Amino acid sequence: MSHRKTLLAASIVAGLCISMSLHAQDAQQTGTTPPTSSTNPTTNPNANAQQAPDQSQAKQLATVTVTGIRASLQASLDTKRNADAIVDAITATDIGKFPATNVAEALAQIPGVTLDRLFGATQRVSIDGIDPSLNNAFLDGHPVAQAMWLYGDSPNRGFNYSLLPPEILGQLEIFKTPEARLPEGSLGGTVFMHTVQPLDVPSNTLTGSFGVNYNDMVDRQRPNGSVFYSWHNDDKTFGVDVSAQHYEEITSRQGQEIFGYSTAGSVASANPAVASEIAAGTIKASDQFPNELNVADFQQTEKRNSVFVNIQYKPSDHFDSTLSLMYMNDSLNNINTSLYPIASASPITSLGPANSAGFITSGSVAGTACYHSFNCASPALTFEDNDARGSYVQTRGIDWRGTYRGDGWSLGGQAGVSTSRDNISQAFEEFFYGGGFNWNTAKGFNFTEPSQANNPGYWADTMGGGGSIAYKPYKSKDAYAQIDFTKQFDGFFNELLVGARYASHWESQSLIDYSGLGEQSLEDVGFGGLSNLQGAKSIGLGGSSVQHVVTQGYQSIFNAVLSPDNGLIANNAVQTYNNTFNMQQKNSSLYGQVNFGNDDVHGNIGVRYVHTSITAYGYNVPQTCTTYDCVLPAGYGYLGQTSTNNNWLPAFNIAWNITPDLILRGAGSETVAYAPYNEYAPFFEANDTVAPLTAAQGNPNLKPYRSVNFNTSLEYYFNPESVIALSGFYKNVLNYVVNQASFENRQNGSWAQIENGTEGKSLVAAGVCTAVGVCQYSVSTPINGGRATVKGAAISYQQAFGSSGFGLRANYTYSDSKTVAGGPLPYNSKNSSTIAPYFEKGPYTASISYNWRGEYLAGGYVAGAPDSYTGSFKELDASAGYQINKHVQLTFNMLNLLNSKYTQYFGPGTTELANEYVSGREFMLEAHFKL
Hints:
Elements: H1 2-18, H2 68-82, E1 87-91, H3 92-97, H4 103-107, E2 113-116, E3 124-127, E4 136-139, E5 169-175, E6 190-195, E7 205-215, E8 220-232, E9 238-258, E10 261-263, H5 264-267, H6 272-280, E11 288-290, E12 293-316, E13 319-331, E14 334-341, E15 348-351, E16 362-365, E17 382-390, E18 392-405, E19 409-433, E20 437-440, E21 444-447, H7 450-453, E22 468-488, E23 493-509, E24 512-515, H8 522-525, E25 527-530, H9 534-538, E26 549-551, H10 554-561, E27 570-572, H11 573-579, E28 581-597, E29 601-620, E30 637-659, E31 662-673, E32 684-687, E33 694-697, E34 705-719, E35 722-747, H12 751-754, H13 758-765, E36 774-800, E37 806-819, E38 831-841, E39 844-853, E40 856-858, E41 868-870, E42 873-883, E43 888-895, E44 902-905, E45 913-918, E46 922-930
Parallel strand pairs: 4-6, 33-36
Antiparallel strand pairs: 1-5, 2-3, 5-6, 7-8, 7-46, 8-9, 9-12, 9-45, 10-11, 12-13, 12-14, 13-18, 14-17, 15-16, 16-20, 17-19, 18-19, 19-22, 20-21, 22-23, 22-24, 23-28, 24-27, 25-26, 28-29, 29-30, 30-31, 31-34, 32-33, 34-35, 35-36, 36-37, 37-38, 38-39, 39-42, 40-41, 41-44, 42-43, 43-46, 44-45
């Protein structure tokens, strides 16, 4: 406890020494009507739960009436300028006038915000170099449940912004420093998204859009449309708004994947040609070469329908209540086709040469293709995996919030629940080809007999399983309730805030896997011709990497697996035991906060107490249990474990108006965050077929991340639409969760499917697995005890150049992270920058945005695989608009104009390639109307 008191004292003293701050007024504001300088956009996630302080305490600043891009930028600056904490904001116009298809792409304009584009459409957002899973996001003050959408992915706490339609938002804020009144759970920053409220816009407001988006890699377009209607009575005591959207998008990701490396010496004994090259000194025994070179083709068609409703009741100035309803269905069916020759298979006829870093970049393997054979014994191994994945995310929510305002006091509350579910499915078919091939890491691979390789009769299942199908029902639920009381005072300490919050999050998954469907050939499943992968070609690949046999697509895989001709389907109990879990996290918190200030100094100080209880359930079964009917001894079965933690979280924000336009801020705080949900569960997710065998498992004993943070900023507002700001941050993470690798012998969950095939036999021959499928796995387990630091600085600049119509936004962020072991933190780029000029005059608008981020650490490609490093990434986007009349505007958005390559490596630097992808350029033409 003495340590905690020291932290609190240090936070307060450091904040006082760093700076002094402008008082934040908590009056609700939406992005549809730009705020004036005398009011402050919402800095409380529960906007109705807190009354704004006396406006006479804030200095009145001159206002400039502007519209469009300039209006939205001014509104965003007003929010930043008037806040107590270090805050950045985006209005709805920002999102619509700058190149963006979702909220995350708009967030990229903010200093310290970086995006991860593994699947093209943005899902993961880092703030100040912190892992996306360690940041919070709230919609109108409440969490939104999100079911996992991709089979094989790992659930995380990071908000999936690509699933939320931006049309519903009026304003968005990022709190980079916490306040005691704000919900716990974030190390980097907390994002608050606010929908448009019916009493804040004119009655009978009707707006909407319709258009098409086009991806040049798939050469197809898809429609999208939205409509927003708002009504209220003449007395503005009751109002309703409805927002409905339909959105479709085709995502294509094509490229090359390398599943680990071997040394030349490790294969020399089985390959005389390699031994000869080593003896001749052409290559070294220590030189490394790829195990497999996979050309990957991910195709997804998304269809999202959503409806959001706000019902607002305000019978008097004393009482305000809003009921919000959310309904969203998102179809995310996809197919991933992987075609990979095994470069380490015997007989290798050549390897080399190696580059200066000791990596062999080319080689060849000899083999003989088999025609119409389910038992091809060729030593050359090439597999084509077809994973057709069904995903249909259903999200529902209901939220109530209200405030009663008395004479100098207010009492507010909020309660609600949201649910999300996805009955994820995966149908799998694999085909084998035994012909020889040449490979090159820069150019891909090419079969030595193209006429055979391009004939579907030479591709058939050799695993004896004939494919498989698995169902993974995934569910998520958030329930919450909060009460807030505020009391205003005269004097320097002008407001007291106290409150309590209860939040429960429940997450579960199970897995039912079916295999043993009988052998099938490519012709049985449905030959779809030859691919022509434009994306693979654009990154330098050629030959068979670009053009090879494929199936007829998503539906043909499901049809083949579920065909009645397959007969009895055998159920895989081991997969169910390993991948079934549920967990519930319950947070109970109390807070007290005091706001203070005068014309020159404003801020707040407070503390939040959080009690956390996490209960996780999973299967614990003996190694000999491979069926559902095995007898479980005492201590085995579906078992649960509960852990609890208590944390006191001080927060202090202060700033000083050095001059009316120059603000110096500082903050000190202690924060907690929590590991991804699945890491608490006693589960075991394994890579059962690709050597070396790896796995990941959970740990119910994990404690929260805990960090002591210090922030400062200096902001100069040299006109109402312009600012230059410098900021710095330091985070000392005292309990960073790290992964620990160990070896475990476990029953292979896919053994019934692979034991008689090439993969199973090779695992037995290598001594990795026994004849009955007990295999050695390298298992990655999250553990407590790591420490880490994150420190950095950012500079941002925004200016409108008079009446010329031109303006500029630009920022640069430096963020240096380090664990106690000396490694970097996940998703932390040391350098990132954005430059975004714009033009707006008369009916014309245009903007360009260039974003760049440096290398960063990311996760492995399969469960338990070593972490990979994502190379630097650049993106160029542009948009243009024309206002036909006051009711109609046309916009044209162009995203990823450089078709930038997303590249990953097995280590820092650019030598050991893991993955490289492109996702194509996207173009969107839309007509917007307002009546």
